[in-house]
Amino acid sequence: MRRREPREARRRFARRMIGGLATLAALALGWPRLRRWLPDADLLPPGSEQFIDVGPLQGFMAGQPTAVHLTLPDAPARARPVVFVLGSPEGAWRVFSSVCPHRACVVEYRAEEAGFRCGCHDSRFDAAGRRQSGPAPRDLDPLPHRVEAGRLLVQWKRYRPGTPESVEG
Predict the structure, then answer these.
(1) Do both 53 and 114 map to the same domain?
(2) Selection from 92, 100, 154 nearest residue 125 by Cα
(3) Consecutive 10-residue runs of the chain (169 residues): their mean pLDDT?
(4) Which domain CATH number covers 85?
């Protein structure tokens, strides 16, 4: 019987090592997908007084939110905030932040759900950014914008997460 115990111990050790390595490999492969769900509001620059040109109005489809990466002066490339632009057939425009108001994770638009979803805590918003379910305390935060010479200009604002009202901060 003594000869089997070391063999079983070696097998148990080998199984644990293989399981640990498989877990590490899964985390390494899944990290890029997991990373975008982690809160990254700390990377985002503070609000700006400057309006940024995000493109011609013809570049945005009515009724379909379009993600736009803002290029802010003096901000590193990794800290480029994403905003969503939503147009209507009547020519009204809505622009809102992609930062979830719950814990500052980034929301994604999901066409199959016709709305936005935060992967961190499963907050859901309709295509117009209105809160539908989940722990988010408010709708997606609107951003100041204006139209000049057929182009959309957006002002980046950073809002404090976890509050019922949109508070800059």
Answers:
(1) yes
(2) 100
(3) 71 87 80 56 63 90 88 71 86 90 90 91 92 95 93 90 85
(4) 2.102.10.10
Residue ranges making up the domain that contains 74: 41-155
Dist CA 69 CA 104 (whole Å): 17
Contact by Cβ (8 Å): 92, 136: no
Q: Is residue 12 part of a domain?
A: yes
Strands (E), 57-123: 66-69, 82-87, 93-97, 107-110, 115-118
Query: CA-based angle 44:50:54, to the nearest 5?
Result: 80
Radius of gyration of the chain (CA): 22
Residues 140, 105: one domain? yes
79 and 46 assigned to the same domain: yes
The first and second tokens of residue 85, run together, are 């632009």
pTM: 0.70
